[in-house]
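user: Kindly work through both lines:
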Amino acid sequence: MRRGHGDFFARPRPWQHGGQFYRKHASRNAFTHVQDCRMTSMTKACASRWYQRWVDAAPDRPARVARLAQLSLARPDFGALLDSELAAGIPLPRAMRRLRNLLLAGLIRRDLDGLADLDEVVTAMTGLADFAIRTHVQDLMAELVAVHGTPIGAESGRPQDMMVLAMGKQGGGELNVSSDIDLIFVYPEDGDTLAGPGQRSLSNHEFFVRLGRKLIGALSEVIEDGFTFRVDMALRPNGKSGPLAASLNMVEEYLIVQGREWERYAWVKARAVTGNEEDIAALDAIVRPFVFRRYLDFGVIDAIRNMHAQIRAEVKRQERLHPDRSNNVKLGRGGIREIEFLAQVFQLIRGGRDPALRERSTRQTLRLLAERELMPASTVERLLDAYTFLRNLEHRLQYLDDAQTHTLPPIDADRETVARMMNLPDVPTLLARLEEQRAFVAAEFDDMFADKSAPATEERAELEAIAADPEQVAAIEAHLTGLGYADPGSAAQRLVATWQAPRMQSLPDASRARLLALVNLALPQVAATVREAGVGSHGATLGRLLDFLEAVARRSAYLSLLTEYPHTLVRVIRMMHASGWAATFLTLHPILLDELLDDRGGIDSPEQLAASLDARLAEAEGDTERQLDILRETHHAQQFRLLALDLAGELSVERLADHLSALADVMVAATVRWAWKTVATRHREEPRFAVIAYGKLGGKELGYVSDLDVIFLFDDEDDMAPSNYAKLAQRFITWMTAHTPAGILFDIDTALRPDGASGMLVSSVAAFERYQRQSAWVWEHQALTRARFCAGDAAIGARFEAIRDEVLRQDRTGREAELKDEVLKMRRRMHDASPNRTPLFDLKQDAGGMIDIEFMVQYLVLRHAANYPQLTANLGNITLLRIAGELGLIDTERAAAVGAAYRLMRRLQHQRRLQGQEARVEHAQVAAQAVEVTRLWEALFGTAP
């Protein structure tokens, strides 16, 4: 040991025992230190005892700190600063510690003088930690390679580098000034070092374990200049009992087999500080599916609730044992950790489906929650204010003695110093502000994480007893009678049947308990919903709900969602009461429960939707299966929002059809764009290809379950064009119709293309024009009246519209009888193909129904568009009837009456389909309207329909 070292370690050092010596004597000498410091400096940094001691230890330090503190320290040139320390001829570990102390002194000065904000402080400390790790790893790696040779992967044969993963606040770029750093060491492959002459080979595992040990020592060993960072390795696989360094295969096996829920929370912030990009990407591919589930994982709320309860219990235990450790701003009630939990619960729930939420920074994650309307912007703003206040306070507690502390000091003088550091007049004001911030955070935390399962009331105890012995049907019936069920006997039988179903009996106990709690909550709500609506059946609504719960019973995430957000269960019940089709749709796509979580209201504009959909598809580029699911999930979510507005009475049938048609246009356009990218032989980046919509989509009268009538056109002289666009059309149909875990998008019908099923799947624009002029049947021109450009190349769309106008505006004078005859023959064929063998009126097919109205409009367009070109505008049947009346082509009053009949029949059809029923009603409901339609038909065609 060199001379003087024994004396050095014999003396009390702040980094050896957390500044206890100085706190013990603070009341005696704090004022003197501050007074001495202020005699030589005008900075408020003198409030820090550590700063006082450090600047007083060498005459050049005040000037060095003053120079450093002149500019922002968010991103200083660490390399240049380190070089200036190394110039003194000292070893790298000492130089790094001196750099750390200089930076800390500069940050204390800038922060307490009001020159630095929280972001500068945490960014600077994170940057120093990253720099120290990289610098030491490079130095130590060279040292070990010189002795043992380069580690080589047994499978790849490539040289191996260690990935040092920064966890916790360093991983999130928000490191404390006196925090330890949480690290994990990972290497790519097992193998051995390639030893040369005089070198001793090691296994890759042993090599990287040694490298890890040396790195920990280089960072944390206490020497004459202190330490750089304390290092905590407890987050590694298997914790303190696990190997210091793990291969990628070891990490993967551990996370799959043993990874625990709290480790998902920890790995959210994992960030590789060293390593090559290929290895980091391989690690990310392992970690990402462990942390971020592909479904909406609401079960994580309960997991975090339990984890937080354990943390709080430990904090309370420590406070009981050490009363001086109360007011923990990190782990205490309403503290920093609760804000972090509030941000990360959304990441763990939704990060698998929204990559943007995989952000590591707590502050940035909170801002994203506001942007995505997952948390009110006002709440986010207050949480950010609280986070800034608590982190600033935490730093000032640590500034006192460079101690890793998170609690207010027990000594009054120290509390006064901290209050002044916070620019507050006294300790009572500090405590009041602290309580204000913590109260808000605690309230938000409780709102998110309070246990919302049904309380153990007498009513629930009764249901639990019934569930334990389902033979007690009479008891269930009595319970339902008390709730006001109209047919309690049938409802009771249905409950028992559901509970005794094999699927329910095989559920884990936890899922059965959660399901029972949901049923307990639902039964009175079903009664209340029927009572409020004034119509409908208790039994039907309960049956739909039980079908749904049985379908999702094994998906714990959905049971968790309904448990954690009881208002969502209420919305589910109301929707299922209003619409049998909605109940079936939700049962098929339970992921749509997410849409009922809040009152986001309305739907995205087509432009917004197209942009967000394109961004999500771009993130999944190369993963066609995921892209198909994204298309379906997006479509179903928007459709579900429309359904909610529809059931609330906020949309007319016409407005709903407009929205559904615009939504389909967006999905078609996105499918064309991204399916083309999968055509390996494509000859250009942007296809000269267009989708033309016919039928319901062409007329913008799409319903919830309508299929799409489309044809495909191209305009491209390249030799590869016909084959490539045929591939694109086939791929388009596959992307639309394929059954994936998210369902299907649309059924596609291409029968209206030139020459029908025997024709080419894709036509050139020229061939289409030639066919329409020379070969098309009258019924094909009828179909053309409802056709429009839907998606793809806009120039092709414009050419199609011009061809359509020209064809529809042909002068058919002299061919009126032929036109009438062709229209009547097609109408008879359609009627004969769909006979109605019920006593009810078929709103679509029967005489006087909707198809008759559509045929009359098509006839009027083909007969008169040559003289009245405005009839070729794609304006919908009701508007075209009104225009025909205004032009004197039909009686104005009759035109209005038939338009009103069409509107009524569409509304009735829509209502029937919402209940999952066929579009047939009692004749009396539409008798007067059918008469008006029949009279106009007779006026146009001279015969009854």
